Amino acid sequence: MKFIFDENISYRIIKKITHKVPNSIHANSIFLNRPAKDIEIWEYAKRNNYLLVTFDEDFQDLANLYGFPPKVILLRTGNSSTEFISEIILNKLSDILQFYESEIHGLLEIF
């Protein structure tokens, strides 16, 4: 399991979670054109087997339109610090792993 974090989440999150979820990346590290289009991030996540983590509901629309992969984790925490986001993700890793292994769910909302 590995994450790709959307551009609307600070790149600093990588340092806070890689000890538990290695090989995770931030969208800014892979695209030359910034900001990347949502569909570009979606396709990259799909091709490279990432769980896409975002605040952006446009990815929920893409999930509804195209299904999965990639699977999407939609954060519903509002404007939150990187520290808070990383704590939530790390605290919910067992739930995220179940979601990752599920063959029927493609969208996980975290509140």
Provide the descriptors you would attach to this structure in a database record.
globular; 111 residues; alpha/beta
Question: Can you walk through the features of this model?
Answer:
By secondary structure, this protein is an alpha/beta fold. It has one domain. 40% of the residues lie in helices and 15% in strands. It contains 5 helices and 5 strands. The protein has a 5-stranded parallel sheet with strand order 2-1-3-4-5, sandwiched between helices. Strand 1, helix 1 and strand 2 form a beta-alpha-beta unit. The longest helix is centred in the middle third of the chain and has 11 residues. The two termini are 21 Å apart. 23% of the residues are buried. The mean pLDDT is 95.
Offer a quick outline of the entry.
With 111 residues, the chain is an alpha/beta fold.
Order of helices and strands: EHEHEHEHHE
Number of strands: 5
Query: Residue share in helices?
Result: 25-40%
The termini sit apart by 21 Å
Give the assembly state of these chains: single chain
Which residues sit in consecutive blocks of at least 5 with pLDDT less than 50?
A: none
Alpha plus pi helix count: 5
Tell me the number of structural domains: 1
Can you tell me the overall shape? globular
What kind of sheet is the major sheet? 5 strands, parallel
- Binned strand content: 15-25%
Strands ordered across the widest β-sheet: 2-1-3-4-5
Helix/strand/pairing category: alpha/beta
Rg from Cα: 13 Å
Arithmetic mean pLDDT: 95
